[in-house]
Amino acid sequence: MAGEFQERRRTPRVEIHGRHEFRLGRRIRIRVVDISGTGALLAADERLPVGTRGRIQVPLAGSQFEGQVEVRREQPPTGQTHLVGLTLTPSQARHQEALEQFLRRAGN
């Protein structure tokens, strides 16, 4: 069906809750739908075109994840919500460890 995401994940994603921040030179309010070791699916109030690069901060069960992101896919909006798939690159080793630890806990 046209307009649907074609699944290309290489690692499993885990749903997360809470307040998240995404920066593209300005702050954009988002909801992280799910996250994996290499990417995430976001719901945003604004369109984030493919190729858009930014920075994300996400609290993960007591730890903070920060990293660089690049929008790889976008889905036509449903009402005011835009769904985007993006790749994640942790800013520091401690952020990679926070993400891995979160995913291990969530997998149990």
3D structure, described in words:
The structure is a single chain. The chain has 108 residues and is mainly β. The chain has a single domain (20-107), classed as Beta Barrel (Thrombin, subunit H), CATH 2.40.10. The protein has one helix and six strands. Strand 5 and strand 6 (81-90) form a beta hairpin. It starts with 19 loop residues before the first strand and ends with a helix.
Please provide a brief summary of the model.
The chain has 108 residues and is mainly β.
Please report the total strand number as a whole number.
Answer: 6
Taken as a percent bin, the fraction of beta residues is over 45%
What does the main sheet amount to?
6 strands, antiparallel, barrel
- Class in CATH? Mainly Beta
Q: Which parts are unreliable, with pLDDT below 50 for 5 consecutive residues or more?
A: none
**Total number of distinct structural domains:** 1
Order of strands side by side in the largest beta sheet? 1-2-3-6-5-4
The average pLDDT is 84
Secondary-structure element string: EEEEEEH
Query: What is the radius of gyration?
Result: 13 Å
> Helical amount among residues, as a percent range?
10-25%
Shape: globular
**Gap between N and C termini, in Å?**
34 Å
**What name goes with the CATH superfamily?**
predicted glycosyltransferase like domains
Query: Which architecture would the CATH scheme give at its second level?
Result: Beta Barrel
Reported by name, the CATH topology is Thrombin, subunit H
How many helices? The count is 1
Assign the structural class, choosing from mainly alpha, mainly beta, alpha/beta, alpha+beta, or little secondary structure.
mainly beta
